[in-house]
Amino acid sequence: MMIGLKLRDEFLGAHMPGTAISLRTSDNHGAAQKSADQILSITYPTADVQTALKAISTKRSGCPIILMGDRGRGKSHIMAVMHHAIDSPEIVESWLKEWGTNTGSGLLAVWKVNVQGKDGQVNLKIVKIGIGMDGSRAPWIERIDDNLLSMEAPKSKAPVEWQRLAANMKQRLLEFLHRELIFSGIINEEMSYVAVPLALVGIET
Description:
Structural class: alpha+beta
Number of helices: 6
Helix content: 25-40%
Number of domains: 2
Strand order of the largest sheet: 2-1-3
């Protein structure tokens, strides 16, 4: 289970509602017509969401943006978040900071992923996956890789304890990696991949 997330009421009934998002509708219930708080309350700051928000930052002003991915990959949802980031930047910045305070200890896994398409073409991707001590996805850990060289070695756990934790979390890390590859559009049902761990770092806060 991810920290701070719970099923909304509409998903607790006997029938699953549709999850497709329309940016604008005739009854003004589109994702771009709702308040920023409404959209952010059902949004998790995935790597794709973070990348999209960086793409519309002032540093990249005027640069074209292309969202790619199969149907159902969350492109419309990301566009809604981007809309509100431009329309209500203070609210979106506050939301990001709130997620950023959900810090804690855990593991940062860096994977080299070789993706092979149906046509035999091979692409190389580097994917970071952060996982908390409770086994939940930890995006805040994924954002600290730039500071790794300046960080001190963990002191509360012996190396053997980190190794044991990594072994216990191996299956969860593989599950999160697979989900990230799917939801980011890196792979589809016609592709195969081989993932090799490049680094596994214990993070202590």
